Automatic annotation (TrEMBL):
Keywords for the protein's UniProt record, in alphabetical order: Membrane, Transmembrane, Transmembrane helix
Positions of transmembrane segments: 25-45, 57-78
Name the record gives this protein: PH domain-containing protein
Source lineage: Bacteria, Bacillati, Actinomycetota, Actinomycetes, Glycomycetales
Pfam family, one: bPH_2
Keyword match Membrane: yes
PANTHER family associated with the record: BLL0215 PROTEIN
Domain YdbS-like PH, chain residue ranges per copy: 80-154
Length: 175
C-alpha cells in the first residue's frame, strides 16, 4: 500500500517512505496462527459430540474464534499496513488509518529538534521511537517503531539543512 502521490505538492520528492518496523506485524501473524489452530482443534472435538445442539456449538465456536482473530490479528495488521511515515524534500508526514484517517505534516522549515530512543531490544533489531519537535502550535510528532531510526534522523537533519540553505539562497536571490 503506497503513499498516494496526490498528497504531494508539485515538485515534492519522497526521500523516505516506510511504515512501523516489521516486528509490529509479528504479533498479529502469531495470534492468527494460534487461534486458527485452537479453533480447528475445538471444532474437531466438537464434531465428535452427539446431540441436537452440536451444530449450535460449532457455530458458536466459529463465531467466537473469528471475532478473536479479527480483534487480535486482522485489525492490528490493517493498522500496521495503513501507517505511513513519509519524509520528502519539503516536509515530514505521518498518516494512519484505512477507514478513519489521521494525518500530521510538519514542514522541514519548522523542524526544531529530532530525537529518538532505543532500548537494547530495539537496537538489536534496528528500530526506535522518534520525536520530531516543530516550531508550530501542533507541537511534535511521535513516530513509533521507525526502522533504521538513526539513519532516518540523519536524513531528516540533512533534508532540514538543505531546505534552510535553499530558502536562504532564494531569499538572497530575491533581494
Amino acid at each position: 500500500m503506497g503513499y498516494p502521490d496526490d498528497q504531494l505538492a508539485r515538485g515534492e520528492v519522497v526521500k523516505l517512505h516506510t511504515r512501523p518496523h516489521w516486528k509490529e506485524a509479528v504479533g498479529p501473524v502469531l495470534w492468527f496462527v494460534v487461534f486458527l489452530l485452537i479453533g480447528a482443534i475445538a471444532i474437531y472435538y466438537s464434531t465428535k459430540i452427539d446431540g441436537d445442539w452440536k451444530m449450535w456449538l460449532i457455530l458458536g465456536e466459529v463465531v467466537v474464534f473469528v471475532a478473536i482473530i479479527v480483534w487480535l490479528s486482522v485489525l492490528p495488521w490493517i493498522r500496521w499496513q495503513s501507517t505511513h511515515y513519509v519524509i520528502t524534500d519539503q516536509r515530514v508526514m505521518w498518516r494512519e488509518g484505512l477507514v478513519t484517517r489521521e494525518s500530521r505534516h510538519i514542514p522541514l522549515a519548522r523542524v526544531n529538534t529530532v530525537s529518538y530512543t532505543q532500548n537494547v531490544w530495539e537496537r538489536i533489531f534496528g528500530f526506535g521511537d522518534m520525536n520530531i519537535d516543530s516550531a508550530s502550535d501542533d507541537g511534535e510528532i511521535e513516530l513509533v517503531d521507525v526502522p533504521k531510526v538513526d539513519k532516518t534522523k540523519a536524513l531528516l537533519y540533512q533534508l532540514a539543512e538543505d531546505d534552510r540553505t535553499r530558502r536562504a539562497t532564494q531569499a538572497g536571490d530575491g533581494i
